[in-house]
Amino acid sequence: MNQIEERKxxxxxxxxxxxxxxxxxxxxxxxxxxxxxxxxxxxxxxxRKFMMVxxxxxxxxxxxxxxxxxxxxxxxxxxxxxxRLLAVNALLESKRLNHSKAYILCxxxxxxxESIQNMLExxxxxxxxxxxxxxxxxxxxxxxxxxxxxxxxxxESMNSIMEAVNITDDMLxxxxxxxxxxxxxxxxxxxxxxxxxxxxxxxxxxTIGKESRMIIMNxxxxxxxxxxxxxxxxxxxxxxxxxxxxxxxxxxxAVEDGVPVDYVRYTWSAKDTLLMFFNWDNIINEREIRxxxxxxxxx
Length: 299
Description:
Blueprint: H1 3-32, H2 38-64, H3 69-97, H4 100-118, E1 142-149, E2 152-157, E3 161-166, E4 173-174, E5 182-188, E6 191-196, H5 198-201, E7 213-218, H6 219-224, E8 232-237, E9 239-246, E10 264-269, E11 274-278, H7 286-298
Parallel strand pairs: 2-11, 6-8
Antiparallel strand pairs: 1-2, 1-9, 3-7, 4-5, 5-6, 7-8, 10-11
Helix pairs in contact: 1-2, 1-4, 2-3, 3-4
């Protein structure tokens, strides 16, 4: 093992130690939140499970079985993707609890997931989301999820997003009764919900990969500012680029080529890309979801 690989092995061992620390701290945070901290406690348990699998499948293989880093690369990418997904949902839960300490801990999880995937080769398409002309009058950062759909990047408030889940081809069922952009539906945790397909509207092809995600959103929060129990829908994205706080940018209106103008409420210019914000009034509405629920309840 050369010097570079020894440094990488040390980084792997350090990741295991940091994950152990994060699991303990999140367990403490869940206890502080009392009955509201069950979600954080579940994250703490999942981190411990992840740590054991990562140590067995990656660290021990390289250190004790003399496997090369290139042999471990597929498993590292898979586990890194899993940890990033766990971190996104943990961040959403921390935001709902308004628990700043838990939020910081979960953001570290996201960074570790990225570092696992980036250890062999840093992705060249990772975007810099620093705002070019931030609004100086609004210093408070805002919590957002930045998603990639085809070639474009979209931002949505964490308040509207309930969960992010892995998506596979067999999960996604065609929905012949769908109106507008409701092309599919899906069963998630025993709940049927419609799925909108913005890829077809953007003239993009859906290719389900290891970074593809189903974003579960609550239309009640988008429309009325409060959570409604039955107005859920899913949206397919190719990747979650970022989950965390963004500094507010100056509101502009400039869309990428191929993006329907009426789908965009406004945009922010970041250093490497244009962040677009959904104009949900022209994408999906309450009547469509109500019709879907009525039809499905009759089936």
